[in-house]
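lol so apparently i was supposed to do this last week
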Amino acid sequence: MGKRGIRSAKETERWKRKFEEERALYREIQEAADDILRSVNFNSTKEHIQHGNMTVNDHCIRVAKYSLALCKKLHIPCSRKDLIRGALLHDYFLYDWHTPDKRKPHRLHGFYHPGRALKNASAEYDLTPREREIIKKHMWPLTVVPPTCREAWIVTTADKWCSLMETFGLHRGHGKILEKVKYLQLEESES
Ligand SMILES: [Fe+2]
Ligand SMILES: [Fe+2]
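anyway here it is w/ fe (ii) ion bound
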């Protein structure tokens, strides 16, 4: 194997690890919130754009994934199930905030959508106090009163990071990692 082959093999391993880590996070999200992920209303958020070309559905799943990753990176002990479910429901406002209608203009969406999300989520799920806190406070400091549990702090941080990346199109999706692994494996087999 030449130098290029060795470098490529190492890179493939790195991307494969990344891919496996991603897969483990998605598996954990599915185990903790299969009911939410399969629900009609949660799936209806695939029709609504959040930032850039990212749907609300993808955004919420990404926030759950980054919340778990942040937890791991900073060694923060927390309720992972509450973290995941709260993150998935944090933007459960169920309307397209880019298309205001006359009756419900969404000019103050930033201020009001946590309350709307909480109302919608409470109507469908038996929320824990932490999940409620995550949804209610995720727009802090816009919502003035700071979060009172670690899970809500983690989700508000992950949400801001994801929103920034999505707004500027800097996010790297699961698909891209898979593509990269496949590409490197092909390069490796050719060298
Ligand atoms: Fe939000
Ligand atoms: Fe969000």
